[in-house]
Amino acid sequence: MNKELEDDFIEALMVSLQDERVIKKIKEIVEAGSFSQMGVPKEQLREKEKEIAKLQQEIESKKEEISECQIMIHQLNEKMESYFNELQKRRADYREAEELYEAVQQLSETTKNSLKGIFKGGSVQEFIVCGVQYENISSLWDFIKNEIMEGREQERGILCALFQYFFQEYSKTYDTPLYKLQEVKMNEVFREDLYIRALNSRISGNITDILLPGYMSINGKTIKRSVVRI
Questions:
Q1: Does residue 211 or residue 91 have the better pLDDT?
Q2: Do 168 and 89 contact (CB within 8 A), yes or no?
């Protein structure tokens, strides 16, 4: 009995499947199912695309930050190099000041006592602070000139090095130096209006030795005439 019913059902179903309306309906159902299944991955794809676009924006932003950081690093490296060079220069200047300070300690007691009015204090720092003051540079020049004119030249080398060092350091404190050393050439004809004739010199003739360089203002006015021997 059941077998006959099944056969009848199958036969009726086969007939129905021949009907164009049934076939059309089945196609609609199949297509609708396919679209509904495809809808899920398409939505997910759109979300992923949004995430990718956001990440790309973040990457571009980070690239800009990296570029800015690289520029800053380059600028900082340039500043560090400049500071390092300045530091090295200052160290060299300070070493020279230290060497001169030590040399001054080796001068005779008479000379050191005479310089006490110019160089006050007992440290290299105080030595530098006093030395770069114009009044002290001028006084030091006068002292050296007097020593030379009285025939005391044994310590002239140290004293002249002291004067020239602080004269140069004083000039560095201005963008445009106020003074410059007087130019004197060996074998140049001696002129009374430009130079001072040292002890044991001839009355006239050519310069044979420059004992103490003088200096002049930047506009050419002679402040201290060089002490020379002829």
A1: 211
A2: no
Measure the CA–CA gap between 6 and 155, rounded to whole angstroms. 137
**Residue holding tokens 């440290």?**
123
Euclidean distance between CA atoms 7 and 103, whole angstroms: 130
Choose among 170, 171, 187, 172: nearest CA to 228: 187
Residue 157 CB neighbours (<10 A):
10
- Cβ neighbours, 10 Å, residue 167: 22
- Diameter of the chain measured on Cα atoms: 161
**For the segment 129-168, what is each residue's pLDDT rounded down to a tens digit?**
999 999 999 999 999 999 999 999 999 999 999 999 999 9
pLDDT, average across residues 5-10: 56
pTM for the model stands at 0.64
Q: What confidence category does residue 32 fall into, taking pLDDT thresholds of 50, 70 and 90?
A: low
For residue 1, what are its two tokens? 């009995």
Strands 226-229 and 195-197, by their bridges, are parallel
